[in-house]
Amino acid sequence: MAGRRAYRSIYAYAWDLADEGPGSFGERIQATGAGAVSLAAAYHAGKFLRPHGRSGKVYFPEDGTIYFRHDPAAYQRVQPLPNPLLAEHDPFADLAGHLPEMERYGWVVCFHNTPLGRLHPDLVARNCYGDPYWYSLNPAHPEAREYVVALCRDLTRTYDLAGLRLETPGWLPFDHGYHHEFALVRMDAWTKLLLGLDFSEATVTAAAVDGIDVLHVQKRVRDALDVFLSAEVAISEAQAADWIASDLIADPDFAAFLRWRCKLVAEVVREIRDVVPAAAEVRVIPSVQRPSARGWIEGSDLKLLAAACDGLELCAYERSAADVLADIHQVRRQVGPDASLSAIMRPSFPDLADGADTVAAARILAGHGVDGLAFYNDGHMRAGYVHTARAAFQAFDEVAEDIQAEAGR
How far apart are the first and last CA of the chain? Predict the structure, then answer.
């Protein structure tokens, strides 16, 4: 990967590219000062407000589909679901043809796929009661894992990409934003953690190979939830944090199970890194949990993941520059001084003081050795975001250059 330009990218959706056309789309991206586009190659459902959308302002993407032309022979039982947009557009080819000077990164949502979960119910995560979480393919299941690895291999063999950005590399948490998600029981971090744990047959079998007594953990979790769900009790978030810590200390099997999950997710990422061309940089978005340290509930250990591929792409989705500083301090403390880190920011509501702290946050990230910067997401923001992004890229570069100059003295 020597000689690659510094990573300065804008995240984008294929439907926004198709709606606007690569000409004006590319002009806006270039106006930010970015040298790359991180384009969704596999994505989930949503209801998205598009401030500068041309054909409409509210968009519902088709759930669980891919936005590149795949090779069916590259997959086994689990096949990707092509988005209908591909009948008329080839988004990655369109970018290459109209914006050859811009590097292209494939943004891959990995194990978050409700349609494939519905089609293959044996592949999904299941809670301690056996209830399926249709939106969460199970990374411990060999066929779910094979599908995600094949998806990344196929994408990078079909298109000339500078790299991949891997999202949802592990288990999805209990909170999902599912359609009409609802409860009349007050939830907290402890309850959500226990309800989000996967005890499917594939997970029990895989963990047993490593000596983890998952059935013991499952019984302890189910018993705890049974008591909680039948009692007239509500706990604060501070109490929930203490309960989680207490459980980790009191039950070694529980702690070992959570650690095992992290090791398995890192193994999946390492397997993807191994099948992707060496010239394509693979970084993982470890979690969208805030702060980054909370990603362990999805099986994301920052240090293990950073070592499994070419680095982390952190979501700096914080309320202020001060929160960004606290988060990057913790991340760097955990992964060490040599791990490669890049970061994504949202330079608008609800983050970074509605965008006012964007430049300050960019300087903080560069000062902590973050080597790349991206903004999320072109389609979601008012078109005027380009000015904030450009100023932040410039500030980021200035700090990085000062650090290099100081190191050279």
Answer: 26
Helix axis angle, 214-230 to 201-209, nearest 10°: 140
Measure the CA–CA gap between 187 and 209, rounded to whole angstroms.
Answer: 33
Q: How far is CA 224 from CA 16, 190, 244, 290, 326, in A?
A: 46, 10, 12, 26, 33
| CATH code of the domain containing 234 | 3.20.20.80
Overall number of domains in the chain: 1
Q: Could you tell me the pLDDT band of residue 2, with boundaries at 50, 70 and 90?
A: very low
> In which region does residue 251 sit, left (phi positive, over 0), alpha (psi from -120 to 50) or beta (all else)?
beta
Query: pLDDT for 145-158, tens place per residue?
Result: 999 999 999 999 99
CB 137 within 8 A of CB 117: yes
The count of C-alpha atoms lying within 13 angstroms of the C-alpha of 168, restricted to the half-sphere facing its C-beta, is 23
Encoding tokens for residue 136?
Answer: 């969460």
Parent domain of 15: 8-407
CA angle 208, 258, 142 (to 5 degrees): 50
Between β-strands 65-66 and 281-284, what pairing exists: parallel, antiparallel or unpaired? unpaired
The per-residue pLDDT for range 211-239, each reduced to its tens digit, is 999 999 999 999 999 999 999 888 999 99
Residue 123 counted as domain residue: yes
1 inside domain: no
Task: Look at the alpha carbons of 41, 110, 287, 241 in this order and tell me if their dihedral is positive or negative.
Answer: positive
In-domain check, residue 3: no
Question: How far is residue 25's CA from residue 196's CA, in Å, rounded to a whole number?
Answer: 39
Interatomic CA distance for residues 28 and 385, integer angstroms = 10
Helices (H), 295-357: 302-308, 321-335
Residue 64 has a CB neighbour count (10 Å cut-off) of 23
Strand, helix or coil at 51? coil
Amino acid identity of residue 142, one-letter, is P
